[in-house]
Design a protein that fits this description.
Helix content: 55-70%
Shape: globular
Order of helices and strands: HHHHHHHHEEHHHH
Number of strands: 2
Strand content: under 5%
Oligomer: single chain
Number of domains: 1
Structural class: mainly alpha
Largest sheet: 2 strands, antiparallel
């Protein structure tokens, strides 16, 4: 039962934040394949030593890449998620968007983001980002009071206060904790061991995730309500960003490594900012 709770925590947190941001992998630098002749080497450096130095460099690069210990499982889960996104989530989101007016859906998204404030504040403080923490606190007060409990977002729309999305996975990365093995989650997609630990710890700060012993501080009071919150968030987010997944995958020759690389690059950029 405890494992099921953790899976639900992951479902909630990995769909928090801005879903409109596309994970676009950056082009990888190519190695010039033109062979050098021995006459191009310095006279006092043997050609074989240069070759060995290149081999050592490539070996080090491979060692620093995140591992893929669950390659077979990850490929199978990527295929499962692909069917789910295309055949279930997209059609349901489209029907939901046709029925529910866009202003209501935007208001719900704002409300969810506003109440995720404790997670953002805690992780900005843990990373020593004092100015960001102050802006998060200012934004929460502004949206809660002037923005009708967070249904509107005057902090961004009028005062131009940015949102500093930070989670515990990013905090661990900030302190140079390695990502660990890549793991594809059901319904959620790419992740890694570090981020799985992060979302589990973030669950204790978020009002959106039911944690045993902390029910009185949470919006969902039981497992069924947590599932309902997850489903509504996924559908609402996807309805506001139609076609994002299909647009993302259309350029992928091999979907699994494409999504894996895109995720790792995205997380590295989030940690570095």
């Amino acid at each position: 039962m405890r494992v099921l709770y953790y899976v639900l925590y992951l479902l909630l947190f990995l769909f928090q934040g801005c879903s409109s941001a596309k994970m676009t992998p950056q082009p990888t630098a190519s190695v010039n394949a033109t062979a050098h002749t021995q006459s191009n080497f310095p006279p006092n450096v043997p050609a074989n030593s240069i070759t060995e130095s290149f081999e050592d460099e490539f070996t080090q690069d491979e060692a620093t890449q995140s591992t893929d210990d669950f390659h077979t499982y990850n490929r199978a889960m990527t295929s499962f998620n692909d069917v789910f996104y295309s055949s279930v989530l997209d059609p349901v989101s489209k029907a939901y968007g046709d029925v529910v007016p866009q202003p209501f859906r935007i208001g719900l998204s704002n409300f969810i983001q506003n109440l995720q404030f404790p997670v953002r504040l805690a992780n900005n403080l843990l990373q020593g980002k004092i100015n960001n923490s102050a802006q998060e606190f200012e934004s929460f007060l502004t949206n809660s009071i002037i923005g009708l409990g967070g249904l509107m977002n005057p902090a961004q729309d009028l005062l131009h206060i940015p949102v500093h999305d930070e989670d515990f996975g990013q905090t661990l990365g900030y302190y140079n904790i390695v990502p660990g093995p890549h793991i594809v989650l059901p319904f959620l997609g790419p992740s890694n061991a570090r981020d799985l630990l992060g979302v589990t710890l973030d669950a204790y700060a978020s009002p959106w995730v039911n944690v045993r012993g902390l029910e009185r501080y949470k919006i969902p009071n039981n497992l069924a309500q947590s599932v309902g919150v997850i489903a509504v968030q996924m559908t609402n987010k996807n309805s506001l960003n139609p076609g994002v997944y299909e647009s993302l995958k259309k350029d992928a020759l091999d979907l699994y490594p494409f999504l894996k690389d895109a995720y790792e690059q995205k997380r590295a950029a989030q940690i570095a900012r």
